[in-house]
Write a structure and sequence with these properties.
This protein has 423 residues and is an alpha+beta fold. It has 4 domains: 93 residues, Rossmann fold (3-Layer(aba) Sandwich), CATH 3.40.50.20; 68 residues, ATP-grasp fold, A domain (Dna Ligase, domain 1, 2-Layer Sandwich); 128 residues, ATP-grasp fold, B domain (D-amino Acid Aminotransferase, Chain A, domain 1), CATH 3.30.470; 96 residues, Phosphoribosylglycinamide synthetase, C-terminal domain (Glycinamide Ribonucleotide Synthetase, Chain A, domain 4). Helix content is 28%, strand content 27%. The strands form 6 sheets. Strands 12, 15, 18, 19, 22 and 23 form a 6-stranded antiparallel beta sheet that branches. Strands 3-2-1-4-5 form a 5-stranded parallel beta sheet, with helices on both faces. A 4-stranded antiparallel beta sheet has the order 6-9-7-8, sandwiched between helices. Helix 7 runs antiparallel to helix 8. The mean pLDDT is 97. The protein binds adenosine monophosphate and glycine (GLY). Adenosine monophosphate binds next to strand 8, strand 9 and strand 17.
Length: 423
């Protein structure tokens, strides 16, 4: 069969690699893709938001199955656009992708269906938000309602910071229309865990857990980023946590979406915080995490096409997900200066030893220049990933493999997976 993957990051590279391992697949296209994806798929220069062109391409090439990796097109209704033309596509429809697209929607859903999450209030009016803050307990968390590249969350330690945050989000509109509505929520503490799942509208199957490292610098310092590295599984995701989430969070979310007339088909990413009062939902995403996919998918034994098709066909109850009994660690190699400002266009070398079995080099911001060299083309450049017998083994191997790669201004965190030592 012919498969089209939509997106261009490390997550989409990991998806393409899993797809390439399916014996059912003859040909992969990726729009727009990147230099690493180009080694597995034919990259097509169409942007992820160009729905009409993507649909026309899928029809012209007689694509059998399309996989949407990114949040923006999902929230914008790309799945509806494909389905309207009778094309088979993996991902939630627009009315379900709102689970990620609107934080106010997801908080209201959790409240209505008693799914554990931080207490909150929602505001459309900045004056009312500021009045509310006068009596609120600090620290407090402000969230722009809509998609903001993962940057629309402000943790405020003082009333002054919080009032300034309301200005930033609702009045200065730093995140655009995403800030028309705002959620103000209780500050929680605890360890964070990412749990990805496949969902077919009714049934949910959980993948192996993971943990991200969102801050730019060692010791969780510096600015928030898209993610500087991951490990899987999380040793803090214990059988007790799993049992709690299965009872109160996972199926409850799927049932709530169905009850609202918004059946969810695709991947739900549960951002969880393990608080003293038990696990609570920090956020939902309507897609694989990046760089969570890079440590979870290489460990999945199932044929990814079988699983994704079961999500679209509503037959996920007949599948059993299986993961290797090992671990994986991904260390992101970024350009010095990310996430603020950085240079691009430097040649990258050292890809030879990655075998796509135990060592993986997932491309995020890379391109091919006119001379045919692979060069840096973004803030997050590569996700160097290794599998090992356990987390410590995987971490040692992943860091060893980061040394194989050379490019100017190469930057990484040196403490990805440090939490493993505390488990
Ligand atoms: P989100 O985009 O909602 O996942 O938020 C980004 C990050 O902000 C999370 O990964 C947490 O580290 C932090 N965060 C979000 N909500 C809260 C909260 N209620 N309490 C503490 N930290 C939070
Ligand atoms: N790694 C966090 C995310 O994909 O949203």
């Amino acid at each position: 069969m012919k498969v089209l993957v939509v997106g261009s990051g490390g997550r989409e590279h990991a998806i393409c690699l899993s797809v390439s391992k399916s014996p059912r697949v003859d040909k992969i296209y990726c729009a727009p893709g990147n230099a690493g994806i180009g080694q597995l798929a034919e990259c097509v220069p169409i942007g992820a938001m160009e729905f009409d062109r993507l649909v026309a391409f899928a029809k012209e090439k007689e694509i059998d199955f399309t996989i949407i990796g990114m949040d923006d097109p999902l929230v914008g209704g790309i799945v509806d656009a494909f389905e309207a033309e009778g094309l088979k596509v993996f991902g939630p429809r627009k009315n379900a992708a709102i689970l990620e697209g609107s934080k106010a929607f997801s908080k209201d859903l959790m409240k209505k269906y008693h799914i554990p999450t931080a207490g909150y209030e929602r505001f459309d009016d900045p004056d009312k938000a500021i009045a509310y803050l006068q009596t609120a307990k600090m620290p407090i968390v402000l969230k722009a309602d809509g998609l903001a590249l993962g940057k629309g969350v402000l943790i405020c330690n003082t009333l002054e910071e919080a009032v300034e945050g309301v200005h930033t989000i609702m009045m200065d509109k730093k995140f655009g229309d995403a800030g028309n509505t705002m959620v103000i929520e209780e500050f929680m503490t605890g360890r964070e865990v990412s749990v990805l799942s496949f969902v077919d509208g009714k049934t949910i199957q959980i993948m192996s857990s993971a943990q991200d490292h969102k801050r730019a610098g060692d010791g969780d310092t510096g600015l928030n980023t898209g993610g500087m590295g991951t490990f899987s599984p999380s040793p803090f995701y214990t059988p007790e946590v799993d049992a709690f989430c299965k009872k109160y969070i996972y199926q409850a979310t799927v049932d709530a979406m169905a009850a609202e007339g918004r059946p969810f088909q695709g991947v739900i990413f549960f951002g969880l915080m393990l608080t003293e009062d038990g696990p609570k939902v920090l956020e939902y995403n309507a897609r694989f995490g990046d760089p969570e996919a890079q440590v979870v998918l290489p460990r999945m034994k199932n044929d990814i096409i079988d699983v994704m098709e079961a999500c679209v066909d509503g037959t996920l109850d007949q599948m059993q997900l299986e993961f290797e009994d090992n671990a994986a660690v991904c260390v992101v190699l970024a350009s010095e200066g990310y996430p603020v400002s950085y240079e691009k266009g430097y040649e990258i070398t050292g890809f030879e030893r990655f075998d796509n079995e135990n060592y993986f080099c997932f491309h995020a911001g890379t391109a091919r220049n006119e001379a045919g060299q692979i060069v840096t083309n973004g803030g997050r450049v590569l996700g160097v990933t290794a599998k090992g017998d356990d987390l410590k083994d995987a971490r040692a191997k992943a860091y060893a493999a980061t040394e194989w790669i050379s490019f100017a201004n190469k930057y990484m965190r040196h403490d990805i997976g440090k939490a493993i030592d505390e488990a």
